[in-house]
From TrEMBL:
Annotated GO biological process: lipopolysaccharide biosynthetic process
Keyword terms: Transferase
Name of the protein: Glycosyltransferase
UniProt keyword Transferase present: yes
Species for this entry: Desulfosporosinus meridiei (strain ATCC BAA-275 / DSM 13257 / KCTC 12902 / NCIMB 13706 / S10)
GO molecular function term, any single one: glycosyltransferase activity
KW Disulfide bond (keyword) present: no
Length: 331
């Protein structure tokens, strides 16, 4: 089977959750004998592929062009929407007044893709329920979760401690691109008020926002870590906090939990479908919720969530579910 992946052209240059999903799904499918190729060319000849798999309808303009091209050539189309309505985030204090209007203006393009594709692969049932609320008519679906690297199982703090010997003995970790949507400024302020060390991993998405976050003396930014060093950083931390405005469900939360770390997660989006009652949840508009979670994380056990995530969400398992979806469309 030969699959064409299509997504925004800068998915490697400006990595985000969709980058991890695309790369990890492709690698895990390869292990199952599936040939997955990537192209951001909106005019590519797709005749040699069994189907086209498009990722991300948040950045809809590129996805819409990929869709029109595949549809014109009569090719089966699967879409991973990675969708969550950003209304609360775009209406927050200090947000651009045009952002919400631009989002709403693009909804008809999203509606067409969701209606006319052959199958949707939402990352959760919660995501699918929201799609069904926001759009009148949409295609059939096959819930296909996000995952964590199988190689993260059994990771220890040793590698991270060797590479970064000056890190505090206990710290809260946040692995995410540094941007207002990920809400690190709120996290930095809360950690500062509680006297906790905060270590940030990830690229700088918003330089001015980054400066505001680094104004707190308790914050250390390491940059981007990958592979076993990233896993070791998760294992070394007391808790991993991702208090974003929304997540579906937050890949770093999944990865951290698989490495045996307590997870503090936003309650907005689909995290509760993955983490159930085994994570500590915060609401982006409730300061008390974050303070409470940070205080509770020092006495919480990571083991129930770790065992649950390791059982259900390795990328190897996600690839099997993805292949089921491909077979469903091609049969």
């Amino acid at each position: 089977m030969k699959i064409l992946f299509q997504a925004r052209p800068d998915f490697m240059k400006n990595p985000a959750g969709d980058t991890v999903q695309i790369v990890s799904t492709g690698q895990a499918l390869k292990a199952l004998g599936i040939e997955a190729h990537f192209s951001s060319d909106p005019n590519i000849d797709v005749s040699s592929y069994d189907l086209v798999h498009i990722f991300n309808i948040t950045r809809i303009k590129e996805s819409y062009m990929f869709f029109l091209n595949a549809q014109k050539q009569g090719k089966k189309i699967i879409i991973s929407p990675i969708y969550w309505p950003p209304n609360a985030y775009l209406n927050r204090e200090g947000a651009s007044s045009n952002a919400l209007a631009a989002w709403k203006h693009a909804q008809p393009m999203r509606a067409r893709l969701l209606r006319e594709c052959d199958l949707l692969l939402p990352n959760s049932q919660i995501e699918m329920d929201v799609l069904q609320q926001d759009f009148l008519k949409i295609a059939d679906y096959h819930v296909t979760p996000n995952g964590f690297p199988d190689s993260f199982i059994g990771t220890t703090p040793k590698l991270f401690r060797e590479q970064f010997p000056n890190m505090p003995a206990e710290f809260v970790l946040c692995a995410a691109r540094i941007s207002p949507r990920k809400n690190q400024l709120w996290l930095a302020k809360a950690c500062h008020e509680l006297g906790l060390s905060l270590v940030l991993l990830g690229s700088i998405n918003d330089p001015n926002y980054y400066k505001s976050v680094l104004n707190f003396s308790n914050v250390t930014h390491i940059g981007t870590l990958q592979g076993q060093l990233l896993a070791s950083a998760y294992a070394a931390s007391k808790a991993h906090a991702l208090p974003s405005w929304f997540e579906t469900p937050g890949l770093s939360s999944l990865e951290a939990s698989a490495c045996g770390t307590v997870v503090i997660s936003t309650d907005q989006g689909s995290p509760k479908e993955y983490f159930q009652d085994m994570a500590l949840y915060v609401h982006p508009l409730d300061n008390t919720s974050l303070h409470t979670a940070l205080e509770q994380c020092y006495n919480a056990s990571p083991l129930p969530l770790m065992q649950h995530i390791r059982k259900h969400y390795p990328w190897s398992r996600v690839a099997e579910i993805t292949l089921e979806a491909y077979n469903k469309v091609l049969s």
